[in-house]
Amino acid sequence: MPSSPSHPVPPGHPVPPNPPVPERRPEPVAVGPDAAERARTVATRPAATVCAPGIQGGRVLAHTVTRDGQVLLVVSRDGDLATAVRAAPGQDLSTLLMVSDHAPVPLRCPVRAQLWLSGWATPVRPADRRTAVLAFAEQRPDPSLLDVGRTAELLRLDLAEVVLGEAGAAADVGLQEFLAARPDPLAGIEAEHLTHLAADHADVLALLAGRLPAGLLGPGDVLRPLALDRFGFRLRVERRFGHVDVRVPFPRPLTCAGQLGPAVARVLCAARAARG
């Protein structure tokens, strides 16, 4: 039985229609990684140095963020950082790890991003060393792991702060967001694809240039591949003074590296159609 309105309509008056149902708009599609995903991707890059009290730009043999979010460092046992950690009260030393993300192709400004991971470095206990080394090797099977316990020391960095620097800006990344994020699935194959694109496929770059906003690429400008991730290509327009970075997106974000070939084919097909 239909329910009666809360405010009865006087006799002879028309019954007002039901209010329209609000239109459900589709969720906006992300066109690039968020700061946490980007930070986890930058953390996979090999170029890193450390700073600690009395240590500026110390060398790291290798580093990684394990699947469960541990930040691990391999350093020389006789090096400045390992020595300072052993001498610190409780073997707990305030430390900053700086990771740089370099473009794999020649660019005037090759550093794409920097990641600052700050916290407290402490030695991994001998009882936990084997498990930690295996977790490290799962993410990065670096040869220096073979020297852990002999000429190399394995340290754990207990995170306090994560900052991502990119495109001239710095962004704080929440610890939980950083630990929950995963690196881009193309991070391990990006360099190979970009160097191949830059060296052997000027035709593909010309097609991608056709997907740029009108007027962005001017006379004398040079278009170079900058980055490749699950959201698409990033290209750099190098000008006489400065540069501009722009994204050419895939139709939808990828979820694994196996989807890269079809996604690139769709982008190039659209570029050829637009040119025709």
UniProtKB/TrEMBL annotation:
It comes from Blastococcus xanthinilyticus. This is Uncharacterized protein DUF2470. It holds the Pfam family DUF2470. Residues 1-21 have a biased composition (Pro residues). It comes from the Bacteria. Residues 1-42 are annotated as: Disordered. Residues 193-263 form the DUF2470 domain.
